[in-house]
Write a structure and sequence with these properties.
The chain has helices spanning about 20-40, 50-55, 60-65, 90-105, 125-130, 195-200, 205-220, 250-265, 270-285; strands at about 1-10, 45-50, 70-75, 115, 135, 165-170, 170-175, 180-185, 190, 190, 225-230, 290. The longest helix is centred in the N-terminal third of the chain and has 22 residues, at about 20-40. Helix 1 (about 20-40) packs parallel to helix 3. The chain contains nine helices and twelve strands.
């Protein structure tokens, strides 16, 4: 079975107040530890790097390339006011091109894989990806049920999204079609298979989700795609916690801003890496083949 350990490399802080410190710690501590861990287990992985962070800390990108891992694009900025689901086609193209050109300049390699910040996309995103020259996307989480805790206008479409790797429709990344863009969906079984959930419920929900995904993969040959952030290996200071308001409604603010940010402070730093190693051991010991997103084409 094919296992994709993917990483969103960004300098956004859980509490939204210390991004310069987080960027430095990711560069000097979080990312090197993560790369060392992957190297120990022979993991080939994709790192979706935010363009703004690459501008600020190009050494982050160089570290990833030096370890033989894939660099993908995470867009240029991680500002909810400029999310892809809010941008028209022309703005998405400009944002994608800015990030892609920067990363290619730093790496000297073609950048072909993309993941949207906060997984927020709209009907124009496949066209924008096609126009700029991307070949792979990983912004869809089929049947993920916790979208009410995050912002985004289209996430209800995940309920009917295919669970295997597929070619997307030209107007919908959550549907099959003939756009030329290959979707590598993020695994979920009601709850997402991601680092945040792993840290929030490490001994109950994550092992159950992992086991269900394993059984499904054995029966249907579906891929396993895990989402992690190198910033999870960085220690946040809870006393600095001060969530930014993004949601319009009071309930949305409570769920997607206050509660979500608060629980995301659990099990950071070395605890996060220990929990991640547990996932790597499971898939290694159960026949998983670790792959980069750009090497998924053989799974179609």
């Amino acid at each position: 079975m094919n296992v994709f350990f993917t990483n969103d490399v960004e300098h956004t802080s859980v509490n939204g107040a210390v991004w310069n410190r987080i960027a430095t710690q990711v560069d000097e501590d979080g990312l090197p530890q993560l790369l060392d861990l992957y190297e120990r287990y022979g993991v080939k992985s994709t790192f979706f790097v935010l363009g703004q962070l690459a501008d600020l800390k190009p050494n982050i990108v160089k570290q990833i390339v030096a370890r033989g891992q894939e660099v993908g694009s995470h867009g240029y900025q991680h500002d909810y006011r400029f999310a892809f689901d809010l941008m028209p086609l022309e703005d998405q193209i400009a944002e994608l091109r800015k990030s892609k050109d920067l990363l290619e300049q730093i790496t000297g390699q073609e950048i072909v894989s993309f993941r949207a910040p906060a997984l927020r996309v709209n009907s124009d995103t496949p066209k924008a990806l096609q126009e700029v020259g991307f070949k792979f996307d990983s912004s869809v989480a089929p049947q993920r049920m916790d979208a009410f805790m995050s912002l985004g206008t289209n996430k209800k479409q995940w309920l009917k999204a295919p669970r295997a790797i597929y070619e997307t429709a030209i107007d919908n990344l959550s549907r099959e079609g003939h756009s030329g863009i290959i979707e590598v969906p993020i695994s979920s079984y009601g709850v997402p298979y991601i680092g945040t959930m792993m840290r929030i419920l490490p001994y109950v929900m994550t092992p159950l989700t992992r086991r269900l995904l394993y059984w499904e993969s054995k029966r249907k040959n579906t891929p396993i795609t895990f989402l992690y952030h190198p910033s999870e290996a960085v220690k946040e200071i809870e006393e600095e916690y001060s969530p930014h308001r993004r949601a319009q409604s009071e309930l949305g603010y409570l769920l997607s801003d206050v509660l979500r940010a608060k629980v995301k402070l659990r099990n950071l730093n070395h605890k996060a890496l220990d929990l991640l190693e547990r996932e790597l051991v499971f898939w290694r010991d159960n026949g998983g083949k670790f792959k980069c997103v750009k090497n998924c084409i053989c799974d179609l």
